[in-house]
Design brief:
It contains 7 helices and 8 strands; from the N terminus they run αααααααββββββββ. By secondary structure, it is of the alpha+beta class. The protein folds into 2 domains: 119 residues, Orthogonal Bundle (Arc Repressor Mutant, subunit A), CATH 1.10.10.1320; 110 residues, no CATH class. It is globular and about 50 Å long. Its main location: membrane. GO terms for molecular function: sigma factor antagonist activity.
């Protein structure tokens, strides 16, 4: 007989971690995002840390890729990406609320993970394919004619400096003389659009220095805010930012 037992805690935790991929790529609806965030808040600490780690890694990876100059992709790129997606089983739509019946989002999670692997490999191949060496992304941001710079003093002490290029769609962020986060807490960087929900730009277990800044995606109207969050980070800010920079 088929197994009709309800999903256990381990199944729910595993599924929640899988959903970090479409969540990080903003490939879920607002209601689905709200439910996922509620589940993360109620999940075991280790599950929340795993979820937050995937979200952070995906967004940081996509941030680096977005800062690469647009170049024509090799002819096989589309075929490789589509082949990755075809490997995931298709399923008919069902509500997110049905825990045991979520094939669309679980398919999307698998597809998103595969797509990231494919695109990262392609991006590296394209970036290394030219005859001329490509400067590091942080250096390229500084070289842009539209790059703007802002520095803010943080309420914790120390300062945060950002260099942002709307043309590249990327920014660098670095810190000086900022004390370590309290025990059991971490700094987390956020991209804050004018009329939208903050998006994590990274959980900072170590604060990037000016000699090795963090690179993140950036839109012209975004603010960059820093908050102190529970260890492992949060899907959304839970405290008042200790500082923010704006280029508006």
């Amino acid at each position: 007989m088929p197994d009709t037992a309800p999903p256990g805690p381990a199944d729910d935790d595993r599924e929640l971690v899988e959903l970090a991929y479409p969540y990080a790529l903003d490939a879920v609806s607002e209601s689905e995002r709200d439910e996922i965030e509620q589940r993360v808040a109620a999940a075991a600490p280790e599950t929340g840390r795993a979820f937050g780690g995937i979200v952070r890694d995906v967004r940081e990876t996509m941030g680096v890729l977005s800062a690469l100059d647009a170049q024509p992709a090799p002819p096989e790129v589309e075929a490789r990406i589509m082949a990755r997606l075809d490997e995931a089983p298709q399923a008919a739509p069902t509500p997110l609320a049905l825990v045991r019946r979520r094939p669309p989002l679980r398919w999307l999670a698998a597809a998103a993970a595969a797509l990231i692997v494919a695109v990262v490999g392609i991006g590296v191949a394209i970036d290394r394919g030219g005859d001329e060496p490509t400067p590091p992304i942080a250096e390229r941001i500084l070289q842009q004619t539209d790059t703007r710079t802002a520095t803010v003093e943080l309420s914790t002490g120390g300062s945060m400096t950002a260099h942002a290029s709307a043309e590249l769609g990327a920014a660098t962020v670095a810190f000086e003389a900022v004390p370590a986060a309290p025990a059991g807490r971490v700094y987390q960087l956020w991209l804050v659009p004018p009329d939208g929900q903050p998006r994590s730009a990274g959980v900072l277990t170590r604060l990037p220095a000016p000699t090795a800044p963090l690179v993140t995606t950036f839109a012209a109207d975004d603010k960059l805010a820093l908050s102190i969050e529970p260890e492992g980070g949060s899907p959304a800010p839970t405290t008042t930012p200790v500082g923010a920079v704006s280029f508006g």
